[in-house]
Amino acid sequence: MKRNIASARINIESSKLLKELNDSLPFDKELYKEDIIGSIAHSKMLYKQGIITKEDFLAIQKGLNELLEEISSGKIELNEGDEDIHMAIERLLTQKIGDAAKRVHTARSRNDQVATDFRLYVMSNNLEIARLIKEVIKSFLNLAKRHTTTLLPGMTHLQHAQPINFAYHLLAYVAMFKRDYERFISSYQRNNYSPLGCAALAGTPHPIDRELTAKELGFEEPTINCLDSVSDRDFALEILFNIATLMMHLSRFAEEVIIWSTSEFGFIKLSDKHATGSSIMPQKKNPDIPELLRGKTGRAYGNLMALLTTMKALPLAYNKDTQEDKEGVFDSVKTAKLSLMVLKEMVDEMEVNREKMEQACKVGHLSATDLADYLVRNLNMPFRDAYYLVGDIVNRAEELNKDISELSFEELKELDSRFKEDVVEVLNIRNSMNARDSFGGTSTKRVKEQIEIFDKWLSEIES
Amino acid sequence: MKRNIASARINIESSKLLKELNDSLPFDKELYKEDIIGSIAHSKMLYKQGIITKEDFLAIQKGLNELLEEISSGKIELNEGDEDIHMAIERLLTQKIGDAAKRVHTARSRNDQVATDFRLYVMSNNLEIARLIKEVIKSFLNLAKRHTTTLLPGMTHLQHAQPINFAYHLLAYVAMFKRDYERFISSYQRNNYSPLGCAALAGTPHPIDRELTAKELGFEEPTINCLDSVSDRDFALEILFNIATLMMHLSRFAEEVIIWSTSEFGFIKLSDKHATGSSIMPQKKNPDIPELLRGKTGRAYGNLMALLTTMKALPLAYNKDTQEDKEGVFDSVKTAKLSLMVLKEMVDEMEVNREKMEQACKVGHLSATDLADYLVRNLNMPFRDAYYLVGDIVNRAEELNKDISELSFEELKELDSRFKEDVVEVLNIRNSMNARDSFGGTSTKRVKEQIEIFDKWLSEIES
Amino acid sequence: MKRNIASARINIESSKLLKELNDSLPFDKELYKEDIIGSIAHSKMLYKQGIITKEDFLAIQKGLNELLEEISSGKIELNEGDEDIHMAIERLLTQKIGDAAKRVHTARSRNDQVATDFRLYVMSNNLEIARLIKEVIKSFLNLAKRHTTTLLPGMTHLQHAQPINFAYHLLAYVAMFKRDYERFISSYQRNNYSPLGCAALAGTPHPIDRELTAKELGFEEPTINCLDSVSDRDFALEILFNIATLMMHLSRFAEEVIIWSTSEFGFIKLSDKHATGSSIMPQKKNPDIPELLRGKTGRAYGNLMALLTTMKALPLAYNKDTQEDKEGVFDSVKTAKLSLMVLKEMVDEMEVNREKMEQACKVGHLSATDLADYLVRNLNMPFRDAYYLVGDIVNRAEELNKDISELSFEELKELDSRFKEDVVEVLNIRNSMNARDSFGGTSTKRVKEQIEIFDKWLSEIES
Amino acid sequence: MKRNIASARINIESSKLLKELNDSLPFDKELYKEDIIGSIAHSKMLYKQGIITKEDFLAIQKGLNELLEEISSGKIELNEGDEDIHMAIERLLTQKIGDAAKRVHTARSRNDQVATDFRLYVMSNNLEIARLIKEVIKSFLNLAKRHTTTLLPGMTHLQHAQPINFAYHLLAYVAMFKRDYERFISSYQRNNYSPLGCAALAGTPHPIDRELTAKELGFEEPTINCLDSVSDRDFALEILFNIATLMMHLSRFAEEVIIWSTSEFGFIKLSDKHATGSSIMPQKKNPDIPELLRGKTGRAYGNLMALLTTMKALPLAYNKDTQEDKEGVFDSVKTAKLSLMVLKEMVDEMEVNREKMEQACKVGHLSATDLADYLVRNLNMPFRDAYYLVGDIVNRAEELNKDISELSFEELKELDSRFKEDVVEVLNIRNSMNARDSFGGTSTKRVKEQIEIFDKWLSEIES
Fold this sequence. Notes:
- Four copies of one chain form a homotetramer.
- Helices cover 61% and strands 5% of the residues of chain A.
- Chain A has 20 helices and six strands.
- Residues 1-6 of chain A have low confidence and may be disordered.
């Protein structure tokens, strides 16, 4: 009878259903590269520590490198006969080089092996996602640089609030993406430690050198406690949370793009490359991309919640439940990377309708706060009193069917005799935008300053 | 230039990234059967209403039936050239029968088509999952019937509380599964209405008969408002929630099986068919199945949360976000079905260690409440006073290193002179179990009554 | 030393922190009414079964009714000296009537007591929420009746798609709310069973009559298995899910109201009663109500996820974890009820801007699908061919800076000589809306039919 | 008619329901201290920048400090007449000092005010939670130091796997808590930036100094972009996620404590201070504390999911939805702090049953892996072959009803003649534990090394 690797004492055939429930190869084959790299590093260490012979190591290394090439190129297809990617590669290596293959697993368990593979995957994707975020930031900054004087109605509650410029709005997203970037990098730094050599849960009696394998694999150092290392999935939860937050940011921008693309707003127009039609309505151009970015927030949240649930109340150390950690992470990582690439392309190619944006600024009495501030500064009115007076002026403007920026000096004087002629300048929309000149504010000067700050930060993280 | 179906006005090539983000064929091909069945019903109606000719209908029907066979048997592989399953099948049908294929989409939009396909899938899986729950219930009832006198320490807070029998414990799960069954059936009944013919969002000017297609496809009736019908995903949320609750129940049983399988408890032993080993520890037999059942609760919760998130704040009617509805449902449905099948097999084949269970009943003073009840009934003591007296007796038994069920009449009399000899019977564990003879209680008599109630319910739902 | 109720054997003072973590009175006092009603029913049964005397029952009943009045009126404040509401009421009753109070807890445990109280709360709130949904439906129907001919651009992807009427759009929500109503009622029917008398986990040796207490409390029947009954929280999960889905529907309408209230859309105007201002921008009127409805979806989802998480993998029967079931349910119930009342008021008082809605219908070539359908019907063109031709016509209209509904017969004829003069009628927006006359469609006739269906359903559920 | 602050133009009374839905005072009064401190810093800056007079500033400062004292001491009760804490304090200050109070809001909006208050709260609680984690770590280290030679069956899949020591197990949690600590600190550092002075969304025309208020309030610097600053809730999501992960760790330890406290395991005993009883079963002592720690994981997850949901797809900048950010954060913060304090006390006072732990190590063939390693090292057997041989030996031991650590040299020799006498030493449990002497492993030596590493880290973060 054929014996199962990893079941030394179990002599009857496993239930077919158990196999179906249990087998992880269909998804964990994603880790073939990490598994091979990990095994090479482990074997090298075994040889350097005198645990296996040089010959064995060289055979293993050669065999694994061949396998890496054969799987990458599609020469070998990982079929479903094996329980998981680790067993599949051990089997393939044994076919290739015989007994030496059986020595790779010395001083190692599937528990630390899978922890290592998965951590390698997550660490490199932290860096890759951070890199893609940087690319998106560059696109936003590029667009911002062209729009530091483009007026846009700044909104709160989706109601026109104060005039801002379009660059300023884009920079709000740059600020979000900067935090996203920092989160992925911070998570990388906090978790880039090697669990390899932790074995099943308690370490190993073999005279291994975990420092060596850690360095070999690009980890900072080996982890401190092996029991923790085989059951820790914090690094996976962190990337899931960081992706959830990133997708939340994307969903906010997506929502705005969708609203801006309506015929009512008309602030922007997506490239035809990024629009799709309807199977029944021949006139439609639909903003599918931002809708998908927004919709995919759901799966990012769901994957986070799934792993949090799975990890709840698990006793130490390894439990099979933990096998559920991978599919969600793969899915979130893939979603994040694709979403960032799509977002960049969309931003690079969308058309901005300056005229529509600026026209919209003349609706909604956007300079009302300026008027209140004017009253405080020039007439030394307490803010709350000014605030109520402006409320009355706005009501009057509405009766006249005008925006307050269109009120004449005469009309204003009628409402309060203390107004001086300079009040008209204060009500001008562009002046209003440029008046908000405090640090972090929307004036063109301040916006250029912000662009400089972000550019400087970019050049620092790239150096 | 090749034109996109569903993009009548878009004349430049779609972005490669958009396609990657957008294409749903890799997962929605799961719906090929529902799509074909739906199209046959629709075409039949179009013909009966005089909208297409009989010849066209017959060609369409024949072509679609052939396609169904070819895809089912693997003769045709759905490759990734198409945007989604609906476009793939329209293209294949056109290759097969030419122009007639182009008439299938008359009076239909992708919006109602996908809503129909997906609803057919969810409805039939509601029934299939309900059927599998019924099978699990039968297995639990079978096991229960063999254990109506098998003592088990009933626990609260994982501490021994009162003696029960094993059947009684199993019946608690039967009660849960009964509610699960009822939820799937209730959801089926509430949602088994046909959106077909709702077109894009507003109905169609063609003289269609939605009643006819509804009946043809096994729906109760057509839905009432088409705008709702193309954007409604309540039926999907319901199956996700019902599966989440089902998996929660499974996770509770799984947790108990894992604890019962420890060497400390030893109450049950899983079949070797359902155990796996360790890659490094040759002595291990691990309860992988219950661990996976417990772990997979995570994905069931995550899929629910994902779709809830996606649906939040979507304006009517169809938005591309909704495309995110399927993968999670497919995954939860597959998980639920496989989990139920595995659970049934595990329960059918696990060994129950009666002796260990009964021995454990002699630890923890399980008959303490009986003693308090005795004092209330026989000495007319207020419950709270009896309760405190028993507390003292338990403390005394612990000093004697005995379980209270092992105290002699003499020892008891020393503590309170009012005890009569019949108190010894009251402290007997089996008597204690049988004493709880109220409706729904654990006495063997009441447990048999419960089995009868569940058997009767089963025969009613099967008739 | 003062002894703790519910801790017969624990002789040292509890940790202050444990008390803080453990005490549930600050939130479970919400259940005082249910607790008192439950205890009266239980005592009545104890008396009828001869377990307590008539005198004791009458004293208990009188004392509890007084307490009910004193707590309701605020005469007694439930302070924080007690561990939970059940202990608080037992203590107050003991102060009032002495020893008889101690007999109430005969044949009952806190486990079945809390299960009963909480279930009573959830059941009555299922009915109350259902009632409020019905009120909301009536408001939507009233508004709909006034707008069966009010044109509105029907949207998909937030892009104008086809002309519909405003009533039709409102009826989509009526269809959602109808399902919501059915879910709450279905959950009520599935779970309205009495756990009272289940005691700690195994039933009781006292000759109780669970049927009697069930009827007394308005339950259908007693539950079947007591072990399940004390650990079952399915009814709580169901109300949390049903509220989550309800809030999701509300968030969709809220999103639309927010978008419709922008100065760009201007389709509706909220009553000043439902708008708030800004502390700094005197001109603002903000749609706080729909924003809060949308934002509160978060807590409804969160409360669901919280209880699902808490219940995961809990062994039977009662565990202290379950105490976490209440706050989330109280919060979701309160949120749902308040949200429904607010929504009703908002809908009743909002102004609909017919003109803006109808004008908007002339943007976006809303009758494009009609034109395609015309080609299919009148020229026997396959749908896909018609679809492409219309795509070209739309492109042409855009060149002319016109909506296709504004194209003249001559302009159309130029594009395809087969057009007849009746094509102009087909392109008319109102005709287009009324043309969608299939069952469930948007034509005024069909919309009136839908209103009738919903009205009939309402009168059925109210009879 | 009384005018609403923050509603300059709204002249009819707000709906009672809107007020109920909208008013945040019942929960945001938690922020009174942050609000007052923020307003003092803002006023000081206004004075230093010449925007208000010294007299006004001094009056404001004095008035606010008095209010702080009066609210803290309970002299003033914040009642429900005000919309939120910010308006309440502005009103109280106006009562106290008149017109000067109205000048505090110059160059500030509720948007940046609430963002500042909330951020101050979250930042200081990041530090406070980090401090409490450090205290828990110290308790775990103290306990660990007493148990570096206490044997414990190391488990995987809740099955005995390899012998470890109890200190090693505790250190796994120290490793988790160290990461938790680092996450709270990292989040603090990433988010400790001041939004004050960002005003409504665009900055202010007043010549403010945001640097000054930032320093005054303990922030690192002002934030870069004001539009982002008023809508950013990343800092809130981060603390919710970090608490969710922390509670997940606590739930794992809680689960183990619950299992270890069963009469079957009996590894530990909680102090009576931390146990509670049953209202009906006088003999019970229940581990309520770990059950509540485990159960409260639910609310931590729920609060995270709630805010993620609320933030999804919100357009910039402030929307009323965001008001939903606070209750969940307050609840999670309170839960985390109380849970950590309770955990520390529980660990400090629980009894460890060394004998039970060590006895348990003789069940389950814990030295099986040692035997396999022995075969690899001494007989140069490939690992897989050794693995299968040990599987056979374990089966043989079971036939003899022995643990393999109890097999004699003779019995072993019978199974494989190559065994030498030293194999007996290898099978000894304590030797087996100490044999796992690789870095991070369970040997007493390595465990002491780990304690040193953690102690060193502690002294570094405290210096």
